[in-house]
Amino acid sequence: MADTKQVDEGTDAQQGAGAERRAAKLAKEINAFAAAHGGAEGQVAYIGQRGARIVLVGADGGWGDLVAPTYAVAEKAVQKAGITVHEAFDGEFAAKVTTGPYEWTRMAGIQVGGRRGA
């Protein structure tokens, strides 16, 4: 029984180290986004078995997102990056997003009566 427990503990340690590495990599990507956009704020959203989505909004209005394998990894990544994290993507936070012609064309293409293949 002790051998099984040791194997399990080793597996847990490996998973923990992998999660820590993934959080560090995401934090590095968040910091790169922030550097390119004059700073950044974010919001973490659970997306089911897929994990969690980190939505980033730059000080210049640019936006992007990253996907973490778990909500815990996403939280650790934004904590390591040191950005402001919002509870929800609404109000003042959503108003900071700048959309351009590309986004408007894409949004129009998915609406009833919108252009196809946009």
Description of the molecule:
- The chain is of the alpha+beta class and 118 residues long.
- It is built from 4 helices and 4 strands, in the order αβββαβαα.
- Strands 3-2-1-4 form a 4-stranded mixed sheet.
- A hairpin with a 5-residue loop joins strand 1 and strand 2 (52-58).
- Helix 1 packs across helix 2.
- The chain is globular, with a radius of gyration of 18 Å.
- It starts with a helix and ends in an 8-residue tail after the last helix.
- 18% of the residues are buried.
Features:
single chain, 118 residues, alpha+beta, 4 helices, 52% helix, 19% strand, globular, disordered N terminus
Task: Give the mean pLDDT.
Answer: 84
The tally of strands reads: 4
Share of helical residues: 40-55%
Task: Give the overall shape, derived from the CA principal axes.
Answer: globular
Outline of this structure?
The protein is of the alpha+beta class.
Task: Draw up the topology in text.
Blueprint: H1 2-36, E1 40-46, E2 52-58, E3 63-68, H2 71-81, E4 84-86, H3 91-95, H4 101-110
Parallel strand pairs: 1-4
Antiparallel strand pairs: 1-2, 2-3
Helix pairs in contact: 1-2
